[in-house]
Amino acid sequence: MAVTTAFTACNNNSSSTQESGSASSAASGEQLKIAVIPKGATHTYWKSAHAGAMKAAKELGNVEVIWQGPQKEDDRQMQIQVVQNFISRGVDGIVLAPLDERSLVPPVKAAIKRKIPVVIFDSDLAAKDYASYIATDNFAGGKLCAKRMAELTGGKGNIILLRYSEGSASTHAREEGFLAGMKEYAPNAKIVSSNQYAGATMEKAFQASQNLLNRFATVDGVFCPNESSTQGMLRALQTAGKVGKVKLVGFDSNETLVSALNQGTIQGLALQDPFNMGYLGVKTAVAVIKGEKFEKLVDTGISMATKENINDPAIKALLTPDLKTWLNE
User: Fold this and answer.
1) What predicted TM-score, i.e. pTM, was given to this entire model?
2) Which domains does the chain have, with CATH numbers?
3) In 3D, which of 217, 218, 225 has the Cα closest to residue 194?
């Protein structure tokens, strides 16, 4: 699947084009301050989004990206506080990946009331009065993972869905897409568990994974909807001596997961394009501020990485984003 790589190329993936009034900072030629707020700071996924935001700022010129978010992806109150602090500081725009689709609505509405445009990326918000939404079609991503699981298991066997975290709109859509896809691609498979949550960290995911593997003696495949849950399940399978025997399909990548994919201990990774989300998020926020045309909805695409296609240039770029150039990492 092709991935959007340029701001002007987004028209094909968007539902509508809108314009917005310019802000005083843009009109006066002052440096624009764009706050970019991720869900967390530890995952490679967010570092990739950060790198994309920095690339956009450099291309635009006269734009400062202020990157700040909670340390852990379950700290909703901290993310709310970060948004509120940026409103008080009077930034020119906010690019936000909301931890929770409902609890982040009030601070976003407060920003909009203060004439600070808000661009949402990665995960949707319950209220749709933000300027733009830039993300993966997560339901389609979940279905893609189900298709891969059906290929790996012959469309049968006992399957576990390890959910991520309640309130996370993006992963919930992936989980529901996976369940719908299994009905379509593997109607003879049995979902033995789909109501357990991994939690926000790899350690919590590892514990939840161990509990599931201990509870169900016969498991043929597992789907995990994000980076930390995938890595936690991988570790649990390794501990239990079930690597390869239980097929693992996950979401997102980091060095450990790429290595496991290359070794065949993970059989599929759904890849998003967080670099492009960060890049387009900043570009869109600046376009809104300047009164230029922008896209209301942008689908940044989804791809399935396997051991067989790991060296394809497009897949390789998604698996190992260029962090060194933009973040010195």
Assistant:
1) 0.87
2) 7-136+273-301 (3.40.50.2300), 138-271 (3.40.50.2300)
3) 225
